[in-house]
Amino acid sequence: MTDPHENAVAPAGAPFAVMLRGALLPSTVAGVVAVVVLTVVRGGDAFVGSLLGLAVSVGFYASGMFLLSRLVRSASPHAFFAVAMAVYFGQVLLLLVFFIVFRDASWVDGTALAVTALVVTIAWQAFAWRAMRTARFPVYDEPAADPEERP
Fold it and tell me: Is residue 142 part of a domain?
């Protein structure tokens, strides 16, 4: 049995790694289902657009969570905020470049890309939230049982 007074401190980036593990597979599966459904409903032209939407969406969210899990090493709110904003800014710039490159591509079904990206986004948010809610991270120190042990 574990000692209730033993404080297990999770590293600062641990919540992001838990969210990445909890959301990556379900959102990828939801995206693959969207690719299949859109290909059947809209035809073969939707396959490439859907697949591109799946790859970009999963890549966007997974890279953000992965980078945050690796870069956030301090529990300082200021450091966390700076790292999170830098990662988000980089992601938005990459998305801008992606949209500029594929803006006029006739071989990409824009509707299929958008629907698949939306499905992956909703699945990612739902399962990342679920992973965070079911993870057990201590948010405060347990009080000492003996009053003499307190600092």
Answer: no
Domain count, the chain: 1
Kindly state whether residue 1 falls inside one of the protein's structural domains.
no
Phi-psi region of 29 (alpha: psi -120 to 50; beta: other; left: phi over 0): alpha
Half-sphere exposure of 50 toward its Cβ, with a 13 Å CA cutoff? 23
- Whether residue 8 is contained in a domain is answered as no
- Residue-wise pLDDT for 126-143, tens only, equals 998 888 888 776 655 666
Residue 140 falls inside a structural domain: no
Per-residue pLDDT reduced to its tens digit, 25-49: 999 999 999 999 999 999 888 999 8
pTM, whole model, 2 decimals?
0.73
Q: What is the distance between the alpha carbons of residues 94 and 104, in angstroms, rounded to a whole number? A: 17
